[in-house]
Amino acid sequence: MKLLRLTPEQTEALGRYLARAADVWRQLVEAFRAMARQLTRTVAAVAEFVQRQQAADPLGVATTQRRPAWMSPYGPPGRHRRR
Questions:
Q1: Torsions phi, psi of 52, nearest 5?
Q2: Nearest-angstrom CA–CA distance, 83 and 41
């Protein structure tokens, strides 16, 4: 294993690069943190909306009749020929 000795200029340059990398990393973490907060708010709003919808119609939309019971879901009956 060979150890390299850095010159003072190289040490300063390395310090600047590491500081820049730490700054970029901090910005990335803050961006993800803001995105996670917004995602949490959105999911909470969707969950609240679904909860309100279920409270208004606990059996679901499938049970609500959108037409009278006598009406066929396939439309009016076809014409029959009389003999």
A1: -65, -40
A2: 68
